TrEMBL record:
Species of the source: Populibacterium corticicola
InterPro entries: Acyl_CoA_acyltransferase, GNAT_dom, N-acetyltransferase
Protein name, as recorded: GNAT family N-acetyltransferase
Keywords: Acyltransferase, Transferase
Keyword match Transferase: yes
Entry's family note: Belongs to the acetyltransferase family. RimJ subfamily.
Domain N-acetyltransferase intervals: 24-196
Gene Ontology MF terms: acyltransferase activity
EC numbers on record: 2.3.-.-
């Protein structure tokens, strides 16, 4: 059904005179990325843990285990083949810097998806995340022909809130106890944008301020 949508394409932005001041490549994670992925995740454990999604325990349901990196890639590939979600690694001048996803993809009368992301503390504040989000929004609207994109962010996560604000996403309100984060149900601020609001493209909007 999804044809060429069965895997996320590589997306590239060369930005030498503006953030992120280098080449940002979004591509699928590979088995060869295992060592670097684990190293970055270990180095950023304290930086990321407060914002990480978790799975609540429900009596009678099997609780998921961590699994291996290979298991993780298999899960990502299965979701991509099903057309449910795409995940990209963010690589800055060849170095792994984080991940960004386009998830809960719906077609039909809704044509909606969610964007989620994380970036290594080493690369934070360099314009990498808003650039990556702009690239994914343009891909979602221009290639997948989606109509609406959401980003849901913890109110305490100022760094992520600034990404949505910099890109001019519309604040839609507070979603109480929306996602299970770091072991508890947590409120989130909801931001969204539609294809009509995006006009000629999110990247152009981001670059033009």
């Amino acid at each position: 059904m999804f044809g060429l949508r069965a895997k996320p394409p590589e997306l590239r932005e060369d930005a030498w005179d503006e953030p992120p001041h280098g080449t940002l490549l979004l591509r699928r994670l590979k088995l060869a990325d295992r060592r670097e992925w684990h190293a970055v995740r270990r180095a950023n454990r304290d930086w990321l843990t407060p914002w990480e999604a978790t799975v609540p325990f429900v009596e009678g349901e099997p609780h998921p285990t961590g699994g291996t990196y290979s298991d993780y890639l298999s899960s990502l590939n299965a979701s991509a083949r099903a057309g449910e979600s795409f995940m990209w690694g963010m690589f800055v001048d060849g170095r792994f810097a984080g991940q960004i996803s386009l998830g809960s993809i719906s077609y039909g009368s809704l044509r909606n998806a969610h964007i989620g992301y994380w970036v290594s503390q080493e690369f934070a504040g360099r314009g990498i995340t808003p650039t990556a989000v702009a690239m994914i929004v343009d891909y979602a609207f221009q290639d997948l022909k989606l109509h609406r994109i959401e980003i849901n962010i913890r109110p305490e996560n100022r760094a992520s809130l600034r990404v949505a604000e910099k890109l001019g996403l519309r604040f839609e309100g507070l979603r109480e106890r929306y996602l299970h984060i770091n072991g508890q149900w947590a409120d989130h601020n909801a931001y969204a944008i539609t294809a009509e609001e995006c006009g000629l493209g999110m990247m152009r909007r981001w670059r033009n301020g």
